[in-house]
Amino acid sequence: MADQTVQADVCVVGAGLAGLVAAVEAADAGREVVVLDQEPPQSLGGQAHWSLGGLFLVGSPEQRRMGVRDSLALARQDWFGSAQFDRPEDYWPRLWAEAYLDFAAGEKRAWLHGMGVRFFPVVGWAERGDGRADGHGNSVPRFHLVWGTGPGVLAPFVRRARAHADAARIRFLFRHRVDEVVTHDGAATGVRGARLAPSDAERGTASGRRVVGEFEVEAGAIVIASGGVGGNHDMVRRLWPERLGTPPRTMVAGVPAHVDGRMLPIAEAAGARVINGDRMWHYTEGLRNWNPVWENHGIRILPGPSSVWLDALGRRLPAPLFPGFDTLGTLKHLRATGYDYSWFVLTQSIIEKEFALSGSEQNPDLTGKDFRLLASRLRPGAAAPIEAFKEHGEDFVVARTLGELVEGMNRVGEPGLVSEPAVRAVLEARDAEIENAFGKDAQVTFLRAHRKYLGDRLIRVAAPHRILDPRHGPLIAVRLNILTRKTLGGLETDLSGRCLAPSGRPVPGLFAAGEAAGFGGGGMMGYNALEGTFLGGCLFSGRVAGRSAGA
């Protein structure tokens, strides 16, 4: 029997970015909204807080100032070439993809700009693709960093939510874990669950699950915005698709444990349909955080394209599996090696110019809007967070000679697995292609081409040089772990954000947004993401679901 009963017009499950957007949009429509989250209030904003704050925009002023010519037609070619929709279940994801592209090329930037969001002037070129014009990848730079990173994306919605809370239009109930969506005659009419003991756990850390009571919320509309499954490695392995090989035995966690996917089967029990559960987005460039926030905390390297990528046995990855090009293509290749890790081999010159770490806490200059600290990136030496990982991180090997480097790789990896003569042969062959302006090494050709983009030449791509040139040393090897991150499938929704039953009919009163909905439709990105699309998908689907629920 519930010892707490709450009534509202709209109930939002999840206080992350998608949930916040849905809540404020519904409140703007004059509805009384209650927002539930199993975490304490210090975790308001969910995963968006930890993000780098990159957004996918098309034809922006920032692109034009950097000399990038983009268009909705080119973005559509890239999106659908990456998504590779091929299932009957892709009907709504396709429509969501079209709608999101219109949003990204249309009002998205102006909508955010009107709420005070500002962008770093250099547009990043993420996920450069598989080498095919009509295949996966971004043909042009589209990764727009928000000034303030993830917290900067959240700020206007937190501000709006708090204003609504002050006016008693939004009520936050933290430490409320939903265990059931209540239905009557097939319609969602509320939720039930457990009240958890208060917790002073810091954001991202385990907050405990001791139950102290029960609750029920009665509402005319329920919005599921509870996130994905990346913190639940058992579920990740169960959903792992055969096309990507066998599931890894060991992974690092790119999200906290509370990203557990538990609301997906709960919504299914209420009549909703989950589709494309085998579509997921995990990175191959994960580092074990030397200063972790949550258990098994992983940080992703955002690499420039110069590092030489070797598998665990010291063999170079084939073209076009270069750093920053094709995430899932690389993951599939590496799973076939039988090992859960791989290596970057690079120089000090490369790490200073090309290495960045994903996450708001790893970019204090951008997160804190600190111009003086930002200017330090232009001075010699790697950024302070990179140097800290190089000094303290268990995945880094730094050496004066190649022999010492390989010795360290075998110490950090597995004894005797990497051969110094074999690695030397790979590096010397690659270095021979640097000696003149011509050559057949595809990675070197890409390096030279990408440096024609002003943003890459200024802050992202080192001048091509020989890896074994001691003037660019010391040599560095970085062990790369598989890092869990995003769920690309989810609850199937129509273009109003309404959850659909297996019959294709809407479940009355039930909506979904954000990662729980595959960022829209149950998987609007298909098989591959173009980066900057996760936060953007939360913004767009949260806005759609909030406005629909509010109506």
TrEMBL record:
InterPro entries: FAD-dep_OxRdtase_2_FAD-bd, FAD/NAD-bd_sf, KsdD_DH, Succ_DH/fumarate_Rdtase_cat_sf. Residues 9-535 form the FAD-dependent oxidoreductase 2 FAD-binding domain. Keywords: Flavoprotein, Oxidoreductase. One of its GO terms (molecular function) is steroid dehydrogenase activity, acting on the CH-CH group of donors. This is FAD-binding dehydrogenase. Pfam families: FAD_binding_2. It comes from the Bacteria.
